[in-house]
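Journal club prep, notes for RB
We'll compare a predicted complex against what the paper describes. Inputs for the 3-methyl-2-oxobutanoic acid case:
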Amino acid sequence: MSERKKVTLSVLYERMAAGPLLTMVTCYDYPMAYLQEQAGIDIVLVGDSLGMTILGFDSTLPVTMEDMIRHAQAVRRGTPSAWLVGDMPYMSYQASDESAVRNAGRFMAEAGCDAIKLEGGREMASRVRAISAAGIPVMGHLGLTPQSAASLGGFRLQGKSAARAKKIVDDAAALEEAGVVATLLELIPDRVCALITERSGVPIISLGCGPAAHGQLLIFHDMFGLYPKFTPKMAKQFGNAGQLIADGLRQYVAEVQGKVFPEPERYFGMKDEEYAELARMLKSEK
Ligand code: KIV
């Protein structure tokens, strides 16, 4: 299916040092993963944002490990080459190191992921150490961490004051010290992202934090007009698949009701003699 070379951790580190910048996109199903494979996306994140984009919840909190594994398996089938990251859902790692290792292991064993991602700073250092010690690469996630939106004051810019920014800079260092292989920064000021990137020994990916990072992430559904509730400022739309599909569905309704669809080339006939025989058989049963 694909001629691409597998994106490995070494590839990410080569690109961090020498470019080109890394591309990362969320993905939740086979057909979109197939398209991302063809487009050469480096890092594919099966995000727990699927709770909102796919399942229609208002937050990521109701997402389960079963949801994540099922979707990650489908995505892996569509993109064999990307560096595939499974997002640890709410309460799959917060309770203990042991539960974190067990659930992280499921992403690797059952879905063929290359790494897992978890949210949080220095308070997650012990989880990062435990999962890394099990041989599983961990991506950190700082700034706006949606699973903690309630305690962060909602989905809003983080690290605006010097003191809050300093905490994020220190958290990035603590995660690196604990063993993360990459860190995602979400919705913090561009200069704070630049500072963290300069100091970092691991690739930094930005979601809404400006251009200084080693790579960029966007949520697939925001990129293509597929999330009806809102489009955040940080999301650039690269096409409007949502509009295309809505127009197509309206046309389908019109064609069915106007007896345009199905056209003769889309269904199958029966030979006259077989049809006559069928009619005869039915008649003789009466
Ligand atoms: O679930 C997700 O898609 C994420 C992004 C918001 C970074 O964690």
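Talking point for the session: Strands lie at 22-26, 43-46, 83-87, 115-117, 138-143, 182-186, 204-207, 215-218.
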